[in-house]
Design goal:
The protein is an alpha+beta fold. The protein has 16 helices and ten strands. The protein has three domains: about 30 residues, no CATH class; about 210 residues, Orthogonal Bundle (Endonuclease III, domain 1), CATH 1.10.340; about 120 residues, Alpha-Beta Complex (Nucleoside Triphosphate Pyrophosphohydrolase). About 40% of the residues lie in helices and about 20% in strands. Strands 4, 5, 6, 7, 8, 9 and 10 form a seven-stranded mixed beta sheet that branches. A three-stranded antiparallel beta sheet has the order 1-2-3. Helix 1 packs across helix 12 and helix 10 packs across helix 12. The longest helix is centred in the first third of the chain and has 18 residues. The chain is elongated.
C-alpha cells in the first residue's frame, strides 16, 4: 500500500517568502506531486468556500437531519444519479426502512422495488449486506470511524469519507468525481482522474486542506462541483468563490481539466422484448441471481432483433397468440454496454402455466422491472388499463 506525506519548504527572495509543498510517496521515496498552494491560501480557500456554502447550499432532505444512516442512504443513491431524481426515492426509502435493522431484514423483492428506476442495483444489495453486518457487529449502527466504515460491504473510500465527515465530524476527505474535477482545475493537475492512484493522491492532498468544519467543507466542495465547476461544458467561473485561487482559471484553461482518458466504446447488444398479455396478466421472468440486473424481473427477452415470424415461433410454448403489435424501439445505456431494443405487444387467448403471470397491481407494487425496460412497462400498463386484449 502506498502512503503519501506532505513536506513544506520555505524559500526566501527579495520580495516575499514563498512556500512550496511536495507530496512524498513514502513507499518509493520520491516526490510524486507538487501542491502549489501555501498554508495561507488553503485558509483563504476554506473561508471563501464555507461562506459561499452557507449562503448558497441547496435545501436537501438528507441535510435536514444528517444521521449516519441518512447520510449513507443518500450517498449511495446519489452515485451516478441526479439530486432531483433521488429526492422521492430517499423519502420513500426512509419511510419504509427507517433504520439499519429494518433494512437488514427487508425482503429482497421489496428492496428491489424500492430501488426500481435508480439503476445500479448492486448498490442496494450491498446496502443490505452492510446492514446485516452492522446488526451482527455494531449493534445495528454504522461504526463511527473512517477505517471501520471501509471494512463494510459496498462502502468505499468516498462513501466512508462522506459518512465519517458529515455524520461523525471526523477530519477526513470525501473525494468523488465533483471534488476531483474542482481540485484538478484549482491545481492544474496533469494526473488522469480515472486512475485509482490519482484518487489516492488527491485524498492525501485534500487532507491537508481540511478545516475544523469538515462536514460543511466536504459538502461545499461537492456543491461547487455540482453547481459551478460543472463537467463537459464551460464552468461558471464568474460565480465561483474559488476563482482567484484557481490555476486553470488564471490560465484560461478550465476546459483542459480534468485530465481523463477516453473510455472504450460500449458494446452494443440487440434485444427483442415481448410484452405478453393474457387476461390482464403479463408474463414475467426473474433474471439470474448474478450478473447484470441480477434478480430483477423482465418481460420475455430474446437476443437479436427477431422478425415477427421468428418471434411467433419463440413464443409458441407460452400460449395461443391472437395478436402481435409493434411497440416503440428503445435504447438503454449501461456503463459498458448498450441495449438496442425492438418491442412487441403480444396478446393471447390461452396461456400455459410456464413462468410468472403478474397482475397490474403486482407490476406496480411487487415486481421490480429495470429502468432499461421502462418504455415497455408503460406500454404494458396502458394495455392493461384499456383491457386491449379483449377489444
Amino acid at each position: 500500500m502506498t502512503f503519501y506525506k506532505e513536506k513544506t519548504v520555505r524559500i526566501f527572495n527579495s520580495e516575499k517568502r514563498l512556500y512550496f509543498s511536495f507530496l512524498i510517496d513514502t513507499k518509493n521515496k520520491q516526490v510524486c506531486y507538487t501542491i502549489v498552494m501555501n498554508k495561507q491560501d488553503k485558509e483563504r480557500m476554506a473561508g471563501y468556500l464555507l461562506a459561499w456554502y452557507d449562503a448558497n447550499k441547496r435545501i436537501l432532505p438528507w441535510r435536514e437531519n444528517p444521521t449516519p444512516y441518512a447520510v449513507w442512504v443518500s450517498e449511495i443513491m446519489l452515485q451516478q444519479t441526479r439530486v432531483e431524481a433521488v429526492k422521492p426515492y430517499f423519502h420513500r426509502f426512509m419511510q419504509q426502512l427507517p433504520d439499519i435493522q429494518s433494512l437488514a431484514t427487508c425482503d429482497d423483492d421489496q428492496l428491489a422495488k424500492l430501488w426500481e428506476g435508480l439503476g445500479y442495483y448492486h448498490r442496494v444489495r450491498n446496502m443490505k449486506k452492510c446492514a446485516i453486518t452492522c446488526v451482527e457487529k455494531y449493534n445495528g449502527q454504522l461504526p463511527s470511524t473512517y477505517e471501520e466504515l471501509l471494512t463494510l460491504p459496498g462502502i468505499g473510500a468516498y462513501t466512508a469519507g462522506a459518512i465519517a465527515s458529515i455524520a461523525f465530524k471526523q477530519k477526513v476527505p470525501a473525494v468523488d468525481g465533483n471534488v476531483l474535477r474542482v481540485f484538478s482545475r484549482i491545481l492544474c493537475s496533469e494526473d488522469d482522474i480515472g486512475k485509482e492512484t490519482t484518487k489516492k493522491k488527491f485524498q492525501s492532498i485534500i487532507q491537508t486542506y481540511l478545516p475544523s468544519r469538515v462536514d460543511a467543507y466536504n459538502q461545499a466542495l461537492m456543491e461547487i462541483g455540482a453547481m459551478i465547476c460543472v463537467p463537459n461544458t464551460r464552468p461558471h467561473c464568474d460565480r465561483c468563490p474559488l476563482a482567484t485561487l484557481c490555476k486553470a482559471h488564471q490560465k484560461n484553461k478550465e476546459m483542459q481539466y480534468p485530465i481523463k482518458q477516453s473510455k472504450k466504446a460500449r458494446k452494443i447488444e440487440q434485444k427483442t422484448i415481448a410484452v405478453v398479455l393474457f387476461q390482464n396478466h403479463v408474463h414475467l421472468h426473474q433474471r439470474d441471481a448474478k450478473g447484470l440486473l441480477a434478480n430483477l424481473y423482465e418481460f420475455d427477452t430474446f437476443e437479436g432483433h427477431l422478425t415477427k415470424q421468428s418471434l411467433l415461433k419463440q413464443l409458441k410454448p407460452i400460449g395461443n397468440i391472437t395478436s402481435i403489435l409493434p411497440l416503440q424501439d428503445s435504447k438503454h445505456i449501461f456503463t459498458h454496454k448498450e441495449w438496442h431494443m425492438k418491442g412487441w405487444l403480444v396478446l393471447l387467448d390461452h396461456a400455459s402455466q410456464t413462468g410468472l403471470w403478474a397482475t397490474q397491481k403486482e407490476l406496480l407494487e411487487t415486481y421490480a422491472i429495470p429502468s432499461a425496460l421502462r418504455i415497455y412497462k408503460q406500454a404494458c400498463l396502458i394495455a392493461m388499463e384499456e383491457d386491449i386484449m379483449y377489444e
